[in-house]
């Protein structure tokens, strides 16, 4: 994909980056004294070091900048029309689920339809409008904003191992601080300390005001994505190869800038692994506490759902370094899709099962508990073992456990595994993840299809994601990818798909 001139620019930028920032450590051309001074500046004051690195980047002429950021020629997600549909329909779906589901029933579609038909027939009287507006809870709104601000503060201030991401198109490498688990622990402790003085009042209040939190998360998602889109035009930013079409709505949705940063604070990395996962973790606990407060006990279905999902979130934060090689970080820009996905979609839609069970408690027979546990353990095993095998093979190919694995070497130098987990299907890790999604929905029973939403949506997301990744790899590896596909014919489910 890289043109010759963009490669030349990449080398030029790389030289500047390597000599100026602690981000790229290996090939410095400065004197040891300068190097030492810079290293100590970056340790003592990472903000100043980041500014210094930014200043040291050569200013490109408009033509050079355009060569580094070629115009995107192909659309994904149905182009501008699809992007418009995503920006409008997905938030509406969140609102429909937030307002259409409560302890009286889980019927977002009927309620949504009634609401719209009343609106169309002008049955929407003033009293109704007033009652809607006065039911808005500004406290919940501000709580969500303070919660998000706290996550930013903790991410920036708590210590953590600093590691480098994959090499970017302009030759530079960014540094990321791994402190996800400390951020989760600190934010949960803060919340628990606040709510302890009020008994269990705070978590129950959060569960009761779920819809207001949904509105707040939507507001933040739009705010963050608008700011990200506008700031992508300031200065000479490295853009995502897929997000520079020039079409406003499309670029806004897919993400224009590759790695928006405020000094050392990486907005995309933060968004991907903090607000969504941590808010989801917390909302689930609130739903469980709400069930406990009404029943004076927890049902086995609630225990299973909350434990499984908490484990999934802890696992993601424990392995947070592995996200640095996913397409969200290496390829996609930061736009509405990721901001909305993480600030709003993940916490509000992924917590649906726990929310459903707090409104409609259910005790599962032992045989079903056994089925659910088997699915979760089997799914997690496939998910984690396959992801770890790929990470370990890529990072330590000489490790004894990787020595017997078969692979093909591509012309770009990367190796593609053709045995082990990655010889069974090209995205066997998706299968494991999807099996876990069944284990999370099954405890909700079959009285309503709504809590099954996650499992259905996730199948669509994974099938679409596999197609996107396939296109990316075909573009990157050309004929080598065809060779790999011949050896490993199945996409996600061995022998089936
Ligand atoms: N819960 C949720 O909502 C979601 C969860 N996920 C999960 O996130 C995880 C990461 O998924 P994702 O980012 O899609 O990508 P993957 O972890 O599946 O990685 C795909 C990349 O791996 C490399 N690769 C492909 N085949 C091989 C091979 N045979 N040998 C070695 N390397 C190979 C290629 O990158 P390269 O260019 O380096 O060769 C390819 O682009 C998955 O487990 C998924 O289930 C994802 C989305 C949503
Ligand atoms: C249609 C729509 C709302 C699109 C937005 C998609 C996002 C919800 C997902 C895109 C990739 C994601 C990942 C995770 C959560 C969902 C989103 C943001 C993830 C953080 C979940 C935990 C995993 O262990 C993971 C870290 C591998 C994963 C990364 C991708």
UniProtKB/TrEMBL annotation:
- Looking at the record's lineage, which domain of life comes first? Eukaryota
**May I ask which residue range the UniProt record assigns to the signal sequence?**
none
Q: In which pathway does it act?
A: Steroid biosynthesis; zymosterol biosynthesis; zymosterol from lanosterol: step 2/6
Q: Name one GO molecular function term.
A: Delta14-sterol reductase activity
According to its UniProt record, the EC number is: 1.3.1.70
**What sort of enzyme, by top EC class, is this?**
oxidoreductase
According to its UniProt entry, one GO biological process term is: ergosterol biosynthetic process
Intracellular or extracellular location(s)? Membrane
Q: How does it sit in the membrane?
A: Multi-pass membrane protein
Q: Where is this region: Disordered?
A: 1-63
Which keywords has UniProt assigned to this entry? Answer: Lipid biosynthesis, Lipid metabolism, Membrane, NADP, Oxidoreductase, Steroid biosynthesis, Steroid metabolism, Sterol biosynthesis, Sterol metabolism, Transmembrane, Transmembrane helix
Query: Does the record carry NADP as a key word?
Result: yes
Which reaction(s) does its UniProt entry say it catalyses?
Answer: 4,4-dimethyl-5alpha-cholesta-8,24-dien-3beta-ol + NADP(+) = 4,4-dimethyl-5alpha-cholesta-8,14,24-trien-3beta-ol + NADPH + H(+)
**Which ranges does the record mark as transmembrane?**
81-100, 136-154, 174-193, 213-231, 297-314, 334-352, 364-383, 437-463
Q: Where is the composition biased (Basic residues)?
A: 1-11
A GO CC annotation given for this chain: endoplasmic reticulum membrane
Task: Work out whether the entry's keyword set contains Membrane.
Answer: yes
Q: What family is this?
A: Belongs to the ERG4/ERG24 family.
This chain's protein is named Delta(14)-sterol reductase ERG24
Q: What species is given as this protein's source?
A: Absidia repens
């Amino acid at each position: 994909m890289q043109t010759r001139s963009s490669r030349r620019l990449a080398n030029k930028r790389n030289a500047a980056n390597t000599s100026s920032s602690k981000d790229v450590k290996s090939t410095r051309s400065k004197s040891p004294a300068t190097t030492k001074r810079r290293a100590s500046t970056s340790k003592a004051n990472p903000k100043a070091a980041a500014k210094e690195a930014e200043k040291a980047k050569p200013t490109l002429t408009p033509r050079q900048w355009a060569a580094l950021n070629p115009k995107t020629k192909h659309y994904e997600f149905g182009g501008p029309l699809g992007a418009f549909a995503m920006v409008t329909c997905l938030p509406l779906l969140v609102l429909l689920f937030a307002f259409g589901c409560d302890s009286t029933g889980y019927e977002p579609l009927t309620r949504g339809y009634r609401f719209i038909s009343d609106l169309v027939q002008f049955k929407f009287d003033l009293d109704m409008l007033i009652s809607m507006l006065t039911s808005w809870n500004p406290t919940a709104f501000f709580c969500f904003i303070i919660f998000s601000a706290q996550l930013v503060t903790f991410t920036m201030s708590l210590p953590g191992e600093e590691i480098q991401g994959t090499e970017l198109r302009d030759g530079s490498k960014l540094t990321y601080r791994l402190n996800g688990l400390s951020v989760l622990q600190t934010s949960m402790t803060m919340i628990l300390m606040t709510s302890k003085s009020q008994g269990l009042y705070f978590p129950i209040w959060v569960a009761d005001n779920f819809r207001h939190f949904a509105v707040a998360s939507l507001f933040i998602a739009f705010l963050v994505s608008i700011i990200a889109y506008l700031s992508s035009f300031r200065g000479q930013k490295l853009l995502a190869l897929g997000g520079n079409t020039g079409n406003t709505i499309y670029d806004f949705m897919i993400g224009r800038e590759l790695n928006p940063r405020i000094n050392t604070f990486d907005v995309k990395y933060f968004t991907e692994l903090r607000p969504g996962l941590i808010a989801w973790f917390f909302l689930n606990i609130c739903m469980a506490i709400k069930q406990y407060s009404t029943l004076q006990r927890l049902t086995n279905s609630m225990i299973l759902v909350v434990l499984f999902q908490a484990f999934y979130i802890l696992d993601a934060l424990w392995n947070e370094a592995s996200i640095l090689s996913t397409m969200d970080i290496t390829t996609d820009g930061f736009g509405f899709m990721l901001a909305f996905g993480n600030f709003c979609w993940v916490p509000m839609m992924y917590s649906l099962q726990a929310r459903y069970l707090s409104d409609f408690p259910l005790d599962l027979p032992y045989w079903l508990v056994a089925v659910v546990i088997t699915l979760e353990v089997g799914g997690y095993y496939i998910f984690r073992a396959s992801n770890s095998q790929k990470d370990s093979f890529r990072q330590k190919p000489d490790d004894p456990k990787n020595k017997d694995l078969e692979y093909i070497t591509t012309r770009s130098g990367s190796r593609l595994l053709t045995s082990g987990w990655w010889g069974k299907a090209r995205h066997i890790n998706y299968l494991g993840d999807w099996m876990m999604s069944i284990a999370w929905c099954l405890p909700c029973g079959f009285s309503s299809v709504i809590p099954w939403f996650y499992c259905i949506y996730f199948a669509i997301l994974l099938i679409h994601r596999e197609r996107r990744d396939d296109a990316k790899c075909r573009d990157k590896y050309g004929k080598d990818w065809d060779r790999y596909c011949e050896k490993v014919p199945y996409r996600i489910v061995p022998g089936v798909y």
